[in-house]
Amino acid sequence: MHFSKLFRVKAGKLERVLAWMETLATGRREEAIATFNYENVTREVVTLFEGEDGSYYLIGLNEAREPYRTGDPDVQINQEHAAFKKECLDPISKKGRVLLDLRADE
Q: What pLDDT does residue 39 have?
């Protein structure tokens, strides 16, 4: 199962977004990956781009086993991530789906 969601970065929050993503990718990577088992997630990719309107947008792409579950609210990193999203991101879509995912055989 693949799914995605689109967010607009709130005004003045780009540096905070970049810093949090760097934190998740480096210093707290293992802690973040440890949440995958509870959520049934196997992969998470976040892409940043600048829109024609000058705003910044994030697309979060996930691969998950059924059934997907949102993060455990009792886990510290999930609490911090929820606060980050509230502070920095405006959701502008409902859950999307990946229509094309081509991969070359290795």
A: 87
Give the Cβ contact number of residue 47 at 10 Å.
10
Q: What is the pTM of this model?
A: 0.84
Predicted pLDDT at 106: 63
pLDDT of 11 > 90? The answer is yes
Residue 40 contacts residue 64 (beta carbons within 8 Å): yes
Q: Name all domains of the chain by residue range, CATH numbers in brackets.
A: 2-91 (3.30.70)
Sheet of 41-50: strand order equals 41-50, 56-64, 2-9, 89-91
Closest residue by Cα to residue 48 from 3, 84, 81, 7: 7
| Beta partners for residue 50, in sequence order | 56
